[in-house]
Every structure is written in structure tokens, then in C-alpha cells.
Amino acid sequence: ELKVEQNPLFLSMQEGKNYTIYCNYSTTSDRLYWYRQDPGKSLESLFVLLSNGAVKQEGRLMASLDTKARLSTLHITAAVHDLSATYFCAVDSNFGNEKLTFGTGTRLTIIP
Amino acid sequence: EAGVVQSPRYKIIEKKQPVAFWCNPISGHNTLYWYLQNLGQGPELLIRYENEEAVDDSQLPKDRFSAERLKGVDSTLKIQPAELGDSAVYLCASSAYNQETQYFGPGTRLLVL
Q: Are B78 and B17 in contact (CB under 8 A)?
């Protein structure tokens, strides 16, 4: 059974600081997704990582994938309040058939 | 482009009552998913459709849950009878053939009393 673990589960950080969210998964996969969820809202796709060594950046967020270590990271640079949300990673456990297994999420709070 | 539409957005029912949720995917998306999201957790897949065929319903509790996707477009998820533990958010998502990203709807928040 595929397990996806994120850490930390809760993160409170000051504006302007940098931090990294980690996503570990238990079985072989080369597809990993990052989503953002605001309170009471649905999930918004941030990144799709499709190969070992993939790196994608959008604004202050950068995601990377190491399939050998079964690890993905979401790095936040110079955090701003608007980035406060819950971030989920999800792993495709069915080799491209899009059966996603989600992590428990990281609730990020940016303090002014 | 319109997103995934779900209704109702909120539903409060008493236990043992039936309830149904409706989803309209993004136009042209042949794959449709229903997820369950408990408070403080990530979504869990209930069922996946390719057009009108349910290709993965292994996580759907078939004793009380049922789903259909007539004509391969809209879908309905039903619970009968509802139990207290069914209180959660039910998310619908869709994707196009060979497209990596799943697009999620706003969800239906169910409260069973």
C-alpha cells in the first residue's frame, strides 16, 4: 500500500523567511503533484513533476522531485501572507493512470 | 473555461437519510473522480470513471455508496443510508485524456446529524 507522508504538518513562519516542505512516499513512482487548498475551498494544482530531477518554479514556490530517494520538496522563498494555505503532495500510484494518493497536508501560516 | 461544478455546496441531513451529490466536469474531460476529504486530511479516491465506465471503485463502500455517470458527462454520488461518520467534504475532479492534472470542484460539505 502506497503511503505518502508530509512534514511538517503545521508550519508557522514569518514573512520574508525561507522554508521547505517535505513529501516522502513509500513505493516507486515518477509522477508527483503539489496542490494548494485555502480554507473552505477546493484544491488548486500548483506543480506536476514527471521525472527524476524535475524542478519547477512559480513565483516564490519551487518544487523538486528525487525519485530515487522517493522525496519531493516544496521550497518557499521570502514568504508572503498570501501563501498561507494547506499544501498537499500527491503521488500517482498507478503509473500514469492518475490514481492519486495524497499526503496529510502541511498547514502553512505566514505571520506578518 | 468553466471549472468543475458541484451541487449542493452544503448539505445537512439526519442519519439514516439518503443524500445525493451532483458533479458536472470540465467540458471535454473524459475522466471523472469522486474523492472523500475528512477534516484535516488529504482527499481519498472513492471512484474513477473513464467516460461512463467505472474503472476503479475499489475504495467505494458499496453497501451504502453508489455512483453513476450516465452518458459519460455528469455524475451523481449517492449515500443511502447516511451514517454519522460520512460527515466530510465530497470532492469531484476531472481530467482530459493523457492530461496529468486533475481539476477539482469546490466540493459538497456534508454534515450528518
A: no
> Alpha-carbon distance B82 to B17, whole Å?
6
First-to-last alpha carbon distance for chain B, in angstroms, is: 37
CA A9 to chain centre: 12
CB–CB of A99 and B104 under 8 A?
Answer: no
Contact call for B104 and A88, based on CB within 8 A: no
At which residue does the C-alpha cell 524542478 appear? A55
Taking contacts as CB-CB distances below 8 angstroms, the residues of chain B near A45 are 101-103
Helices then strands, each counted (H, E), chain A: 0, 11
CB A54 within 8 A of CB A64: yes
Count chain A–chain B contacts defined by CB atoms under 8 A.
48
Q: What distance in Å separates the CA atoms of residue A16 and residue A19, rounded to the nearest whole number?
A: 10
Which residues contact residue B112 at a Cβ distance below 8 angstroms, ignoring those fewer than 6 apart?
B13, B14, B15, B82, B83, B84, B85, B86, B87
The DSSP H or E segment spanning A20 is: strand A19-25
Partner residues linked to B93 by β-bridges: B33, B104
Q: Do B104 and A42 touch (CB under 8 A)?
A: yes
Q: What is the pLDDT along chain B (113 residues), one digit of tens a residue?
A: 689 999 999 999 999 999 999 999 999 999 999 999 999 899 999 999 999 999 989 899 999 999 999 888 999 999 999 999 999 999 999 998 777 789 999 999 999 99
Report the 10 Å Cβ neighbour count for A104: 16
